[in-house]
Design a protein that fits this description.
With 338 residues, the protein is mainly alpha-helical. The protein has a single domain, classed as Up-down Bundle (Na+/H+ antiporter like fold). Helices cover 81% and strands 1% of the residues. Strand 1 and strand 2 form a beta hairpin. Helix 8 (119-151) packs antiparallel against helix 9 (163-192). Its main location: membrane.
Length: 338
C-alpha cells in the first residue's frame, strides 16, 4: 500500500497510463490482478461436493446465516454508517456504500486460514457468495444508491448508476474467474485425476493468489496515490464508517455464533465472511461507473487501507478468544460434512 501511494504521488504519469489501458470503461491492469488473485482460490472450491454437502442440515444452517449477514445485515449497516458519517460528501459516501455491497469472496480465504477457520465451509460460502454477487450486486447497487436516498428526500442525479456498466464489471471481475475455476477443476480432475489435481496442480498455482493480491494492491494505490495525499482530510473521514463497520460485523457475528453454540472454526468462518468485503470489486465498479479520478473510486480505495490491517488484528483477536472462551466440540454431523 505504501509503495503504491508513493508511486502514484511521485510518478504522475502512472494514472493516465492506467486510464488508457481499458476494456470499455473497465481497467485492464486491475482486471489482470483480480483474475490472477481469484483464479487459484476458485480452483480450490470442491464444486463436485456441493450436492452431498447441501444434503446436510448443518450446511443449510450455515448458508442461511451467511446469506442473512452478507446480503441483508451488511449492506444496511454500511449504508446507514455512510449516511451518518458522510452526509456532506455524496461522492465519498457512494464509494463507501459500494464497498458495503461487495461481499468478500477471495480475501476471506486468507483470513479464515490464518485464524484457523473451517476451510471446507469457507470454500462453499465463497462459491455461494460469488454466485449471489453476480446476480445481486447490480440490482443492490441501483437500490441502495439510486432508490434509497429518495426515501429520505435526498436525490442527486450525479450519483445515479445504470444497470449495464455495473453488471458488465461484475461479470468480468467475478464471472470469468468463477467459470475458469469451475472448468479447470472439472477438466483437471477428469483428465489427470483428483490426486494429481490436489497434490500437484493446486500447490503450483496457489502462490499466484498472493502475487495477484500484492500486485492488485500496488496498482490500486498507485492509481489513487496523489488523490489520497491531496485529500487526506476526506480520506480520514471515509475511514470512520469503514472501521466501525468491520468491528461491528465481526464481533456481532462472532458472539452471536458463539451464543448459538456454533464451534470455533465455523464461527471464525462466518465472522470473517460477514466482516470483510470484496474491495477490489468495489473499486472496479467505482472506476468503471464514475471514472478513475472520482471521489467514489478514491473512497473505495480506502477500503483495503482500513480493512487489511484491521482484519489482520482481528485474526489475532479470534485466536486469543479461541483460547479464552469455552467452545463446544465439533458435532458429528459437521465432522461428516467436513
Amino acid at each position: 500500500m505504501v509503495v503504491g501511494v508513493l508511486i502514484g504521488y511521485f510518478v504522475p504519469s502512472v494514472q493516465p497510463a492506467f486510464a488508457t489501458v481499458q476494456f470499455g470503461s473497465v481497467s485492464v491492469p486491475i482486471a489482470v490482478g483480480l483474475l490472477v488473485m481469484m483464479y487459484p482460490v476458485l480452483c480450490k472450491v470442491q464444486y463436485e461436493k456441493l450436492p452431498s454437502l447441501l444434503s446436510h442440515r448443518s450446511m443449510w444452517q450455515q448458508i442461511l446465516i451467511s446469506v442473512v449477514l452478507n446480503w441483508i445485515v451488511g449492506p444496511i449497516i454500511m449504508t446507514a454508517l455512510a449516511w451518518a458519517t458522510l452526509p456532506d460528501l455524496p461522492g465519498f459516501r457512494t464509494g463507501v456504500i459500494l464497498v458495503g455491497l461487495a461481499r468478500c469472496i477471495a480475501m476471506v480465504m486468507i483470513w479464515n486460514d490464518l485464524a484457523g477457520g473451517d476451510p471446507n465451509y469457507c470454500a462453499i460460502l465463497v462459491a455461494i457468495n460469488a454466485i449471489l454477487q453476480i446476480a445481486l450486486f447490480s440490482p443492490y447497487a441501483i437500490l441502495f444508491i439510486n432508490v434509497v436516498p429518495g426515501w429520505f428526500g435526498s436525490v442527486d442525479d450525479s450519483m445515479h448508476l445504470t444497470m449495464w456498466p455495473v453488471a458488465r464489471a461484475v461479470l468480468i471481475y467475478l464471472g470469468i474467474p468463477l467459470l475458469a475455476g469451475m472448468l479447470t477443476r472439472l477438466v483437471g480432475c477428469m483428465i489427470k485425476g483428483k490426486r494429481w489435481y490436489e497434490q500437484s496442480f493446486l500447490p503450483h498455482i496457489g502462490p499466484l493468489a498472493l502475487l495477484g493480491l500484492i500486485y492488485t494492491i500496488v496498482v490500486m494505490f498507485a492509481n489513487q496515490g496523489h488523490s489520497i495525499i491531496a485529500n487526506i482530510g476526506s480520506v480520514c473521514r471515509v475511514a470512520v464508517p469503514l472501521l466501525i463497520y468491520f468491528i461491528i460485523m465481526f464481533f456481532a457475528t462472532f458472539f452471536s455464533c458463539k451464543a448459538l453454540g456454533i464451534d470455533y472454526p465455523l464461527t471464525v468462518t462466518q465472522s470473517f465472511t460477514a466482516g470483510s468485503n470484496n474491495f477490489e470489486l468495489a473499486i472496479s465498479i467505482a472506476i468503471a461507473t464514475y471514472g478513475i479520478t472520482s471521489e467514489q473510486a478514491l473512497a473505495a480505495t480506502i477500503g483495503p487501507l482500513i480493512e487489511v490491517p484491521v482484519l489482520l488484528v482481528l485474526v489475532y483477536v479470534a485466536m486469543y478468544l479461541q483460547k479464552k472462551l469455552a467452545w463446544k466440540e465439533l458435532k458429528e454431523e459437521a465432522s461428516v460434512v467436513c
